Amino acid sequence: MQDQKGSSFNGFHWSHWAVISLSLLLTLGAWYFSHQQAEQKTKAQFEFQAEQIVSLVQERMEKYEEALWAGVAALHTMPHHMTRSDWRIFANSLNVESRFPGINGIGVIHYLEPDKLDSYLAWQRETTPDYALHPAHTQNEYWPITYIEPQMSNQAAVGLDMAHEINRYSAAKKARDTGKASITGPITLVQDAKKTPGFLFYAPWYGDRQSNHLYGDQEGDFLGLVYSPFIMKKLMGGVLENSNRQVNFSIHDGGEVLYSELNQSSENYDDAPLFSKQIEINMYGRDWLFTVQSSSLFRAQNTQNQPWIILAGGIVIDSLLLIIFILLSRANHRAVSYADKVTQDLKLQKEELEIAHEDLQLRNQELEEANKDLDQFAFVASHDLKAPLRGISQLAQWIEEDLRENFSSQTREFMDLLQGRIQRLEKLLDALLSYSRIGREKNTFEQFHLGTRVTELFSLINANEAFAFDCEDNVGELNTLAVPLELVLRNLLSNAIKHHDKGQGNIQFKAQKQSDHYQICVIDDGPGIPTQFQEQVFELFKTLKPRDEVESSGLGLSMVKKILDRYDCHYQISSNGDRGTCFEFEWPFEAALREK
């Protein structure tokens, strides 16, 4: 038994090993490529989610900036000094709480030099008797919050002087000196009872210094700031509510935490994230560092099973190919052994001329029976190999019926891919069987009309009627070997349709009667075949498109070549390599065919 197995493997032709090795390499390559593609796709999705987080924060801050500049515009439109009631009317018109979620309010900070402090306080105490600046500081200027709406929730901030604390003070001066909106470093708002991180957003306000004796810069036209206070947690809740989000993130400013979801208490937090990224942006004069990590929800929604399904399916197909080649090798070994035995017998029988004739007839009969047995063996082998394929197909259908409601779109794609691979292997077995029989079957001559027969063949192949067909037949009735000629024409027509890149087009058939043969052409308007590939398309299992893009066994043109070579027919491919291909071949007259 071991010797037989060894001889079977040793009897493999190098082409068998090449096919198996190439198939295995293609399987591993497809697995690696799909794995890389899945990884890149998942990473790209994470990159998009991370960039979207930053973009949403930036867009929201730009919207808040517009509200501040609207406040500056409102101050400019007033014909007199804006009062507390005037500011309340403006703030109510903005509808801050519904149109700007996450904002704590919007207010006015007046700039005061020491000589204007008394007149400013007297002006404010006309409407707010207990108005006062706080806390005390040593700076030679004052930046008090004069108005803030809604005032009820921000009462603790009224009269707060920005000059008392370095983050508030430095950002206020930057806004004044640059004329641009700016934000403070991390601070704790006086109106925040929970003492969580926050910041202030300033927009500078300028005007006519000659007409203002209550506030403003004596040497310039700077009058103050329109500002908004923000509690970071409340801001992020208004901008990016953490509900079914695929990423968690944190924001740092100068090493201090402004906001963080990177902890166990955060929704969908993943302590071993698939991806992590840091993005640093300049946010109105401050450098904010975003640290973005994929969440557990991202992990659950981006589990990639496709590469492993491809690998498993490829290994199954490679195993089946190995079984096919083992069976074919054993059959070939039996045939060769039998042929050797017949040859030896014939040599012995030549010495005995009287019995040689009878023995020769007997051996010829045995050889015909052996060919029949070989055909039967090939058929049975093909049938036996199809049985496990049908079992796999049935198993896949049962799995689909049981789990259809729980399938994701990717799982559906994988099941369709598995069924397609099974169908492709069945077609490959049928094609291999047809290829093995070429030249060994006895064909009969038949009288028929060439144009009518070709039109019928095309109608069978063009099931969805997507392709137009022009038949130019100048041959008409002929008596020839119908089976091999039909096989050539069917494969050429099918090849022109399957490899068309548009799914529809025009196929032409031309036939002329020459002096000693018929000249036949099949022309399509699909993609052309470059010159360097025009010989390769006749090779076994050779296709110019990936197998996933075209349902082809890779044996069609190989069968055409084998038949035409069998009857010594000249053939050629004509194509400019861009669009259109013409396959032209000669077919012998009846007399020439009967001599072969």
Automatic annotation (TrEMBL):
Residues 133-291 form the CHASE domain. InterPro entries: BphY/WalK/GraS-like, CHASE_dom, CHASE_sf, HATPase_C_sf, HATPase_dom, His_kinase_dom, HisK_dim/P_dom, HisK_dim/P_sf. It comes from the Bacteria. SMART domains: CHASE (SM01079), HATPase_c (SM00387), HisKA (SM00388). CDD domains: HATPase (cd00075), HisKA (cd00082). GO terms for cellular component: membrane. The keyword rRNA processing does not apply. Its main location: membrane. One of its GO terms (biological process) is osmosensory signaling via phosphorelay pathway. It is found in: Membrane. Keywords: Coiled coil, Kinase, Membrane, Phosphoprotein, Transferase, Transmembrane, Transmembrane helix. This is histidine kinase.
